[in-house]
Amino acid sequence: MYAFTYHRPDTVRQAAGLLARKDDAKIIAGGHTLLPTMKQRLASPGALVDLGGVPELKGIERKGRGLIIGAMMTHAEVAESAAVQEAIPGLAALAANIGDPHVRHRGTIGGSIANNDPAADYPAACIAMGAIIVTNKRKIPAEDFFQGMFGTALEEGEIVTKVAFGIPSRSAYAKFRNPASRYALVGVYVAKRGGEVRVAVTGAGASGVFRWTAAEEALKKRFAPKSLEGVKADPSGLNSDIHADAEYRAHLINVMARRAVEAALGK
Questions:
Q1: Hey, what domains does the chain have and what are their CATH numbers?
Q2: 204: closest CA among 251, 172, 150?
Q3: pTM check: above 0.85
Q4: What's the rounded Cα separation, in Å, for the pair 110 and 245?
Q5: In angstroms, rounded to a whole number, what is the distance separating the alpha carbons of residues 235 and 213?
Q6: CA-CA distance, 186 to 177, in Å (whole number)?
Q7: What confidence tens digit (pLDDT) does each residue in 66-119 have?
């Protein structure tokens, strides 16, 4: 690992100032992606800005028909939050099944979203529930935020501070996970809010998370697993690797979507 300077600011403003002043500075939240990359000498930032000491990035609050989650809330805190369990039980269940206990107690929702790993779970939840990603500079709709594999709308020095979810009437997530990494080979989040239904897929797309519009149209007519019978995902544009080829992932998308709908209905 290369030498670097370590900074632990107390406020978002201090963190943003450090990012602006320090050459090649990187934010560290849970560190599950950045630190292994540094150990392998694939990245060598001159400075690390640790957000772990910034209180304003913590907290979970329900506001009317919305749920606000601070960017530095760990997966375990999201999963165990009574507010999340009551407002969006599907999101609590998603967080409870990320990685292993070590990952869940160190990894953060903001770090996961900012990294936008193509097999991460939260991007599907954000897209399906029309979340707003709040930064120190602006508010970004989830569909504008995620921009392809590991790509986001974040600009230089911009910090994710919280995520605002609209509360659906029903929602759930189902994933077929890699048994070693526990990342999603295919993960599907289904959310119903009023007359709108959204289905977001992670792990399968070569360009990251995406909406499965064919399933959305079928579920708008009737929100039931049977509505997805015969609805097939297009394998073109899907990942194909040593874990699963595109055709198999297309099959899994339908299977996971039906399981998610069943879970959302409490079956």
A1: 5-53 (3.30.43.10), 55-166 (3.30.465.10), 170-264 (3.30.390.50)
A2: 251
A3: yes
A4: 30
A5: 14
A6: 7
A7: 999 999 999 999 999 999 999 999 999 999 999 999 999 999 999 999 999 999
